[in-house]
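Here is the promised in-class demo. Please do not try to memorize the tokens; focus on the logic of going from shape to residues.
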């Protein structure tokens, strides 16, 4: 669509500029043709407004002969022909308008006076067309730059979504491997517990598949997923696995990526609770700090055990997803004390997408 007509914010200033040009043409008509001021203004201002819309058509020769592709001779010929046609049309309209005005007694002799000014008017028409064509080239370049930027952002978003899907896809196999391995270990010694664990796993998978397809979910639903996961592990660990929560209730409707806490809680169970004979408590804290949200998962661990090398798949996955979702606005803190390991996610506040309501 035409870059000026498509935007009211551009059309207004464009018309205002042509009204000012109409005033300048009236001054020239007064000086060159000795037209009275009222006659010069009534003749020039309407003609300027008409020519403003004639010159809008210069957009189309600009599209036909783009500066970056068309040869210089083609540019000159294309716009010279368009300028001459526009000038002839404008002069014809000016003469017609003068003839109409001359039928009114106050404007007797206006056609004769216009005849002294018609050559100057034709030159002005060519110059104004050239200026309009130059402006349209600038607008076309601006629109093309915006289009390229929009396409670049769309490609970046598509790449980010693909990355997120790949990262999410890592969570399920990693979790399933650990859970199925635990079920297998229970089948011979505790078959009833293995059956209960399978039922809890089915419930968790139904929920995770339903919520995992969304871009963001309410924090309350993410915490519910965590509890379902802990219910699965609770079959295996019994009273050795305990959950403590300290939640800011006002933050439960804040948006978070789905399954962002589950790998952290899984690490807390696998590398913390499972290695302690007496088990321990997985603690989840939710705190608001202005427009930011802090989510902390902490657990005891065996300080005498062999330290783990690197972050592991779970933490690496969460860190990568945070970068993909929030860029530098999200932070992941890992803290290890004498007998406690904790991970804190700091996220900016975001509105939930409409699709999740």
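The designed amino acids, position by position:
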């Amino acid at each position: 669509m035409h870059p000026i007509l498509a935007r009211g914010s551009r059309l207004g200033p464009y018309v205002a500029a042509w009204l000012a040009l109409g005033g300048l043409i009236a001054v020239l008509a007064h000086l060159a043709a000795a037209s009275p001021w009222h006659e010069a203004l009534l003749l020039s201002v309407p003609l300027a407004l008409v020519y403003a819309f004639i010159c809008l058509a210069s957009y189309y020769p600009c599209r036909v002969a783009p500066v970056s592709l068309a040869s210089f001779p083609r540019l000159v010929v294309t716009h010279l022909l368009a300028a001459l046609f526009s000038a002839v049309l404008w002069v014809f309209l000016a003469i017609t308008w003068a003839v109409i005005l001359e039928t009114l007694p106050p404007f007797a002799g206006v056609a004769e006076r216009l005849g002294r000014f018609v050559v100057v008017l034709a030159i002005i028409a060519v110059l104004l067309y050239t200026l309009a064509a130059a402006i349209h080239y600038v607008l076309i370049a601006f629109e093309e730059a915006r289009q390229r930027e929009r396409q670049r952002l769309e490609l970046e978003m598509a790449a980010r979504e693909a990355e997120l899907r790949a990262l999410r896809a890592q969570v399920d196999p990693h979790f399933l491997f650990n859970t199925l391995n635990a079920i297998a270990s229970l089948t011979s010694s505790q078959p009833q517990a293995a059956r209960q664990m399978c039922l809890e796993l089915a419930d968790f998978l139904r929920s995770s598949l339903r919520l995992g397809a969304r871009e963001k979910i309410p924090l309350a639903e993410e915490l519910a997923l965590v509890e379902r996961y802990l219910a699965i592990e609770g079959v295996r660990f019994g009273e050795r696995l305990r959950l403590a929560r300290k939640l800011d209730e006002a933050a439960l409707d804040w948006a978070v990526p789905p399954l962002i806490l589950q790998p952290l809680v899984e690490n807390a169970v696998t590398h913390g609770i499972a290695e302690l004979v007496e088990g321990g408590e997985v603690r989840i804290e939710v705190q608001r700090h202005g427009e930011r949200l802090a989510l902390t998962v902490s657990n005891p661990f065996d300080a005498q055990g062999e330290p783990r090398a690197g972050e592991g798949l779970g933490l690496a996955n969460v860190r990568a997803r945070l970068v993909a979702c929030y860029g530098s606005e999200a932070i992941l803190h890992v803290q290890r004390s004498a007998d406690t390991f904790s991970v804190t996610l700091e996220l900016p506040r975001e509105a939930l997408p409409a699709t999740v309501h």
